Amino acid sequence: MYCIRMRNMEGRRFSRSGNAGDCIELRQDLLAVRDSKRPGVSLPVEINHGQVYIYGEPPWADDPGNNAVLRALDDARQSGRFVGESDGLVDLVSPAQWNSHAPMRVEAWPHEPPPDDDQWDHVVDIDLDAPNGRLWFEGSGGRDPIPCDVPPGAYRARVSGRGYTEAAAGTEGVDSYRLRLWPRGQKTPPRGRKVWHGWQDGTIN
After folding, report:
1. Per-residue pLDDT reduced to its tens digit, 164-177
2. What CA–CA distance (Å, rounded) separates 182 from 152?
3. Threshold 0.85, pTM exceeds
């Protein structure tokens, strides 16, 4: 078993358990580092059934029957972006079916960051809000969500992933991800900046 202990900005801890190695302790406090040269934190997230949900507020909090996860998945696939959205929930679809500790770097920027799409397999820009100063990363299938504190606000997010070709070939634990956030004004449609070739050539569906 492993556990992840996380402190929010007031020092409270969150804990969860899983199925690997040792206990990992992380400080999730983007407010403390957002003005640094490399503002961000890294944390392990869980890819389950090839998906991880990212949200500030769960769409089902006031409506247990809300099916935003299915609509976001439909949006991801039908749009060809493989990053979908519904009711503020973002569904990141990955060729890696299972990874219980996939590296995710979360960065808060004061403005749109410079592009580095050539360093990633797949890149999508999409709106993502954190009204209460926290994002949650939840593996598909009802996994325990992992919290990450961020400055409260309405954001444009750049979702990037790599290691996709190796993951699609069956290599485990090689996929990694990054979420860059910067303030936005109005709502903007999602934009696919770079599409992994495997989504296009049928390597994986």
Report:
1. 999 999 999 999 99
2. 11
3. no
